[in-house]
TrEMBL record:
Keyword list, A-Z: Amino-acid biosynthesis, Cytoplasm, NADP, Oxidoreductase, Proline biosynthesis
HAMAP family in alphabetical order: P5C_reductase
UniProt subcellular location: Cytoplasm
EC number: 1.5.1.2
Domain (Pyrroline-5-carboxylate reductase catalytic N-terminal) ranges: 9-104
Protein name: Pyrroline-5-carboxylate reductase
Catalytic activity: L-proline + NAD(+) = (S)-1-pyrroline-5-carboxylate + NADH + 2 H(+); L-proline + NADP(+) = (S)-1-pyrroline-5-carboxylate + NADPH + 2 H(+)
InterPro entries: 6-PGluconate_DH-like_C_sf, NAD(P)-bd_dom_sf, P5C_Rdtase_cat_N, P5CR-like_CS, P5CR_dimer, Pyrroline-COOH_reductase
Limits of the Pyrroline-5-carboxylate reductase dimerisation domain: 168-272
Source organism phylogeny: Bacteria, Pseudomonadati, Pseudomonadota, Gammaproteobacteria, Oceanospirillales
GO MF term list: pyrroline-5-carboxylate reductase activity
Entry's Gene Ontology cellular component terms: cytoplasm
């Protein structure tokens, strides 16, 4: 993963949903468990993580930082200020690369809370990282070296797709499309399952059909030489069944709804940034 024979030591601060999705995916793709440590305040959670993933866990965030080349900050945005202030001294002493996955917190604010002059990468991942099918947007501040960019890109490529953005504001767009995006597709799957039940299928059968169709459509869209619009046209026979369904979606303004939902998501990220960086 880097030029030295030793893998980079990665400390995850806050071993919740997103951190476990990333380190779980890294482990599945062969990253050595000995090089990963995760912190949690709950003993039960620490035991569960060590048992399930075979990585080291700690209660003490400072001890984790003191041994790390890369520190991944993975607590809720609202907890980040206190966490950064508590890590400041250790971080300034060791100067690891900082990677934040928090929605809506800009690199300069994090850097400031951590004492300044640090290499900071803002990452917006998503939970399908857990199954190696994640999508992450990355933004690096000016202090991040090429080697550090490459290391983080490699780590996240091991759990899915990586897209660099050149402007930090573009991270809000990544949040609206892929960070929060899995929830939109899950919502559509839930609706499709409920509709199947309404039309007379059993819940189990409706769920299996809805999930396999979502999977099949995504796989086909990724693998095909045709774009999604052309693939949709190929399902839609003139005067056939699909046409009626698509007409219904269009009349209800699906594209507009998606536009408004993603705008609202990006705006919430900006709002979080204003609230939390005060
Ligand atoms: N869940 C998602 O789909 C995504 C989440 N994110 C970001 O990831 C971050 C974490 O979100 P989730 O994993 O969903 O939340 P979570 O609540 O599952 O995980 C956060 C964890 O941090 C722990 N924690 C809080 N303060 C701590 C401290 N001082 N020291 C050690 N541990 C501490 C909590 O106990 C919890 O286990 C957030 O900033 C969020 O914006 C980013 C992309 C996607
Ligand atoms: O809902 C949230 O705030 C986080 C960030 C992106 C996905 N989950």
């Amino acid at each position: 993963m880097n030029d030295s024979p030793q893998p980079s030591r990665i400390a995850f601060i806050g071993a919740g949903n997103m951190a476990s999705a990333i380190f779980g995916g890294m482990l599945d793709s062969g990253y050595p468990a000995e090089a990963i440590v995760a912190t949690s305040r709950s003993q039960e959670k620490r035991d569960d993580i060590s048992q399930r993933y075979g990585i080291r866990t700690m209660q003490d965030n400072l001890a984790a930082v003191q041994q790390a080349d890369v520190v991944v900050l993975a607590v809720k945005p609202q907890m980040m200020r206190d966490l950064c202030l508590s890590l400041r001294e250790s971080v300034q002493a060791r100067r690891p690369l900082i990677v934040s996955v928090a929605a809506g917190l800009d690199a300069a604010t994090l850097d400031n809370w951590l004492g300044g002059d640090l290499a900071v990468i803002r990452c917006m991942p998503n939970t399908p990282s857990l199954v190696g099918a994640g999508a992450s947007g990355l933004y690096a501040n000016a202090r991040v070296s090429d080697a550090q960019r490459q290391l983080v890109a490699e780590l996240l490529t091991s759990v899915g797709l990586v897209e660099w953005v050149e402007q930090e504001a573009q991270i809000e767009a990544v949040t609206a499309i892929s960070g929060s995006g899995p929830a939109y597709f899950f919502l559509f799957m839930e609706s499709l399952e409920a509709a199947g039940v309404e039309l007379g299928l059993s819940t189990e059968s409706a769920r299996r059909l809805a999930l396999q169709t979502a999977f099949g459509a995504a796989k086909m869209a990724r693998e095909s030489v045709f774009d999604p619009a052309e693939l949709r046209r190929r399902v839609t026979s003139p005067n056939g069944t699909t046409e009626r369904a698509i007409q219904t979606f269009e009349e209800a303004g699906l594209a507009d709804i998606v536009g408004r939902a993603t705008q609202a998501c990006a705006e919430r990220a900006r709002e979080l940034s204003r609230e939390l960086s005060k």
